[in-house]
Amino acid sequence: MADLFYGRVETDAVVVGAGGANSQLCSNCGKEVQNSRLVDEFQASDSKLCSNCEKRHGHAHVAHLSHYLFLENLIHVTWTCNGCNKSCTELQDTLCYFCDICKFYLCRSCFQPKKYLLHEHSLTKTDVRCIYTASQGGWKCDCCGRNNGREHYLPRHCKICQFDLCEKCCQPQRSTLHLHILYKANTELIYQRFSGGWRCDSCASRFHPNTNKFPYHCDICEFDLCDNCMRITDSK
């Protein structure tokens, strides 16, 4: 299995980036490097940036392994984040991390690792094609069980546990049955005093973590909804 290291994939035969082990080419744009420093993010002697890419301060990220991402204020461009599929209009933001070689966009939220009530470790948007090579990047959400759709290779991923989370399970949800925002949560984490057992506060159904441990949860009130009650309120 490939080892991810600050946005780079290390294998016996592959070096990511335009510059090879003995190359004097920029690891980002492929242009000749002259008097460049080593790239701090990689901590490797074969990773260099040309003066132009160095001035722009490139960021290595596991969501886009081919090139560096640059924080840009794209005020005259309509863009959609490759991580969450939200447009700059929906996000109400013009700043994003951008690869002008691939036209790859990552919003500021997707760029950052995040903690969720669904998993004990931080999750980072990751191109899992380099991790799940046997399935050619195929994965399924460890919360809802849905398989990824075509060309959707960027789950929230835990490199420690190989835990993957789809975008829908990350999002806040509203219900007419409760005042506050609800999030999917893992009851084995939030209700350890009950060994992960929980009850829906709408229909009063009780659940064991072996059968269902992912309610829609309010972290303020400890209010929980089962999937069925959430679907009923969604349809009203």
TrEMBL record:
InterPro entries: C1-like_sf. This is Uncharacterized protein. It comes from Paramuricea clavata.
